[in-house]
Give the backbone structure.
Amino acid sequence: MRSREAPRPLSPPRANGPASTLEQTLSGVPPGPQRPAHSLRRRFVLAIVALVAFVLVALAAALVLTGRSSLRRDLEAMLWVITLALVLATLLAMLLARPILRPLSALTAGATALAEGRLDTRLQVTTGDELEVLARTLNQMASRLSASIAQLEAGNRALSQSNVELRELDRLKSDLLANVSHELRTPLTSVKGWLEALAEELLGPLNETQREALEVSRRNLDRQLHLIGELLSYARFESAGVHLERQPTDLAAIVAQVVAGVRASRPLELDLRLEVEADLPLADVDAARLAQVVENLLTNAVKFTPAGGTVTVRLYRSGDLLAVEVADTGIGIAREDQSRIFERFHQVQSSSTRRYGGIGLGLAIVRQILDAHGCVIELDSAPGRGSTFRFHLPAAPAAESAGTTGPLLAVIDADVPFARGLADHLAAAGWRVRIAGSFACAERLVRESRPRLVVLDRLLPDGDGFDLIGRWRRDPDHRQMAILVLSMRDEEALARRLGADGCLLKPVAPARVLTEIARVLAAAAVASAPDEAVS
Amino acid sequence: VKVISPLSMGTYRILVVDDEPDVLRMLQVVLGRRGHEVLTAASGIEGLVRAQGDRPDLVLLDIMMEGMDGWETLKLLKLEEGTRGIPVVMLSARVEPRDKIRGLQEGAVDYVTKPFSVKELLGTVETILDGPQLA
């Protein structure tokens, strides 16, 4: 019976025939393609057998040739002697060959096992000659190989472990940011609320000193909130990247809003100017992020410009691009500092931190946001001669769904993802669709491209969508335009009184919007037909 | 920024749902001084019960609350026949733009980030409740 477990380390083969020894040694090894390990022994035995056969055949031939003579008798005697000698010699040769052949079998079997990947195999050859050295070398090689493989496997395990940990860390980081944001702001909610209620005299009249105390508290609270916001903004962009919601944006409206905000936030002892070229195209940007850029540049300019100076925000066309420029007559920046000011926590001199306040993240955030938009910020500045920051933004492509030639339709909704989704459905139904996300953009879009129908959401960031209905109905250019209102509340009666042709309650399925559009247009066609007949 | 006008066009019943007692009390006083009737709830569940029982004209709903959060509360308010039509303004100290978008997609009328300006919150709430000023 063959044993299924191969003895390891290999024991020297026992002397019960070459085949059975090898089979015992290699049992448990699946039959490989070829293992000619026994051929050496076989060839050795064959050689001896051939030699004996040759001598015997030669003698037999001599016997036949010599016939019946005394010579023949001598030859017969010689034949026996020679045969005996040959048998003895063969036995002796086999005895002498064994110490070489046995370790060779062991070496062969061991090397085969190693080659098959059983690296814990160790060869035991103790012949005290070159074969033992060979076996030792093979054993060393096997140990080194096992060690390297173990190391590699450990390395791989560590790598995949740290991959898992990194992903976990990333998730924790963004959770932490959201939670830190929440934890830092929540306690300030009631502080801010109460301070404002007091300052607005909702809780009773104030004397001058009380008013001053509250104003100082509020101003400092707002400063602290601004810093928290800046820190969290920077950290969020750094960990998760800047996620942009690009849409056709009226830059002039954004810049004007930011300038108004800065004017209102503090008493300015400098001249803050806004120069906007007329009739600029819309820009393809994330409106909220871009407002952040302009605000950071502007507050910086105001901060570093002494009383009596000038800060100018310019908006103009530059080839196919729109240029935004914030220029001041302030302290300026030395050439060697110009590249460093966009690094985080950097202010030109450490003393300026105390003098000008802030934590030096404003420009780092500016760069993060502009990077995400794919634009570069330029800086012209020299100490004492003021600074000019400038960047160029792409104009929005005509936001029409390509390949359709149907009538034009406008979707006006501050919820841009919703507007895009709806626009895709309408475009699939054969309309050309343009979208606008603000009051200002909507007004311009309708004025410039005269859509056949507008789908209008009332809640717009910069105005009440219902005011647009009134304007369009009073304007002879747009009186014929169909208006379909989408609203969170049931205000169909009011919308119709203002002049809308239909009203749907949000949330609404795009298919429902399509059928309502068809209904509104059919009704408009019926209504306008007699008019045309009369005129 | 709007200056607080003496009183809004009407007085309304407003439900405030927030698990921060300090914020709850502050809003109760501020909205109360404006002449509104203020109901408060310190959890999402309590908010749902009050919304169904007392039928407020508007709900101010905090997002990050222990237990049932503002998102779940909003979903249940919009599922229930009796409360579906009540406008909901989300309040949250989270400033991620996607939170705001989610709020609007799930049926909130507006989304106000904490800490808010009382003036702006009153402006938002009263604009929603008064409806458009007809010329």
